[in-house]
């Protein structure tokens, strides 16, 4: 990586996209400065300038990328633009942090991979589930071998009411008819981001109701909700449920089940349940013998309060305290010339399986193979 253009201990970043892009801490990170912002709307640019106390604003990504004083960019634009925008930024010599997912098409994912490998620049996916407080705990438990063998993980992302975002000013948005499994990273990362396993096959079913609201969407998607059963290269099963419609909780949740210990993410971000096995014989409500389990309800450690973050970033932040971790990981990976933990291969691992899962749902649940890319293991915290 060429470091000569980077100010000493300061990464100069450009923020592109006013909605998700405004929720991070680059302006207070000790090793970064927000050099410029960009959004297609004047209001969006003003909002970003206010949040980041930044005086330099551009009307487009293309204009921002011409700024030679910018070292890295945060692409917080709509998902169908991610691949194109990331590739443009890499070609311009900028390190890239991108909102999820990596892309919406397999060929676009492969093209981004090729450009990352060609340029040698840093690419990181801003996947929030990787740095939720419960996921950090699960990763530490896994590295300490407390689970024994994790044989099953279940993850759910339910966002009922998604149709409210289908149209804006009478025109369809990118969300109109978006297949649920095209937005899989919040769920898949609960497993890949803990164990480093890779998903190798999937069978998926979808549910739709012939609603007129789904008609004529650009994805040709008939489903509101999808449920997938994945198998990993370590013969773990991962069940992923993604819902856009129904009488449902608004949740991003997961559980990890092992032969020695299991961990359950409670409704509250700050609560968790740990189940441990025992050899003590008990009776179920039918009078049949079983092994009693040990149930421990605990407060979740708030890792953002710890030395895992620079002192002035130790604050609660969006998506379960994850935003400060994403901010720090991206900046630190550039400064120390190392791959970020959610690098291009991790991004592929939690994006591509969803694309194949939707294909399976269209085919009535047919089991399909998932392409694998370069393997890597998750580093310990």
Which descriptors would you attach to this protein?
381 residues, nine-stranded mixed sheet, six-stranded parallel sheet, disordered N terminus, 17 strands, 26% helix, alpha/beta
Secondary structure layout:
Blueprint: E1 11-16, E2 32-38, H1 42-52, E3 57-58, H2 61-65, E4 72-75, H3 82-91, E5 95-98, H4 106-119, E6 123-125, H5 133-143, E7 150-158, E8 167-168, E9 171-172, H6 185-195, E10 199-207, E11 225-232, E12 237-243, E13 251-258, E14 261-265, E15 271-283, E16 289-299, H7 318-321, H8 323-335, H9 344-362, E17 368-369
Parallel strand pairs: 1-2, 1-4, 2-3, 4-5, 5-6, 7-12
Antiparallel strand pairs: 7-13, 8-9, 10-11, 10-17, 11-12, 13-14, 14-15, 15-16
Explain this structure to me?
- The chain has 381 residues and is α/β, with parallel strands linked by helices.
- Helices cover 26% and strands 27% of the residues.
- The protein contains nine helices and 17 strands.
- It has helices at 42-52, 61-65, 82-91, 106-119, 133-143, 185-195, 318-321, 323-335, 344-362, and strands at residues 11-16, 32-38, 57-58, 72-75, 95-98, 123-125, 150-158, 167-168, 171-172, 199-207, 225-232, 237-243, 251-258, 261-265, 271-283, 289-299, 368-369.
- The chain is globular and about 70 Å long.
- The relative contact order is 0.17.
- Mean pLDDT is 95; it is low at 1-5.
């Amino acid at each position: 990586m060429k470091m000569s253009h980077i100010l000493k201990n300061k990464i100069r970043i450009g923020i592109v996209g006013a909605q998700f892009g405004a929720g991070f801490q680059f302006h207070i990170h000790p090793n970064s400065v927000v050099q410029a912002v960009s959004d297609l709307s004047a209001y969006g640019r003003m909002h970003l300038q206010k949040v980041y106390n930044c005086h330099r604003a551009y009307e487009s990504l293309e204009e921002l990328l011409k700024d030679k004083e910018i070292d890295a960019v945060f692409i917080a634009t709509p998902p169908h633009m991610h691949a194109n925008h990331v590739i443009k930024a890499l070609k311009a010599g900028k390190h890239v942090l991108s909102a999820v997912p990596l892309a919406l098409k397999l060929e676009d994912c492969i093209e981004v991979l090729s450009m990352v490998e060609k340029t040698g620049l840093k690419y990181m996916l801003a996947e929030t589930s990787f740095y939720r407080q419960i996921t950090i705990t699960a990763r530490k438990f896994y590295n300490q071998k407390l689970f024994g063998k994790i044989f099953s993980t279940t993850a759910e992302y339910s966002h009922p009411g998604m149709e409210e975002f289908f149209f804006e000013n009478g025109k369809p948005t990118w969300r109109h008819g978006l297949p649920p499994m095209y937005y899989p990273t919040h769920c898949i990362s609960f497993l890949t981001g803990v164990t480093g396993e890779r998903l190798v096959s999937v069978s998926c079913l979808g549910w739709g109701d012939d609603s007129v609201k789904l008609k004529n969407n650009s994805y040709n998607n008939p489903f509101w909700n999808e449920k997938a059963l994945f198998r990993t290269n370590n013969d773990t099963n991962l069940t992923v449920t993604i819902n856009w419609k129904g009488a449902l909780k608004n949740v991003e949740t997961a559980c990890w089940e092992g032969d020695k210990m299991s961990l359950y993410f409670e409704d509250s971000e700050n609560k968790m349940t740990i189940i441990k096995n025992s050899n003590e014989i008990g009776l179920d409500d039918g009078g049949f013998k079983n092994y009693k389990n040990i149930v421990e309800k605990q407060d979740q450690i708030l890792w953002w309060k710890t030395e895992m973050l620079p002192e002035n970033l130790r604050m609660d932040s969006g998506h379960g305290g994850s935003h400060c971790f994403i901010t720090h990981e991206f900046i630190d990976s550039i400064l120390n010339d190392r791959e970020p933990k959610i690098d291009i291969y991790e991004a592929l691992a939690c994006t591509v399986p969803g694309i194949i899962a939707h294909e399976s749902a269209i085919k009535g649940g047919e089991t399909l193979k998932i392409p694998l890319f370069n393997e890597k293991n998750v580093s310990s915290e």
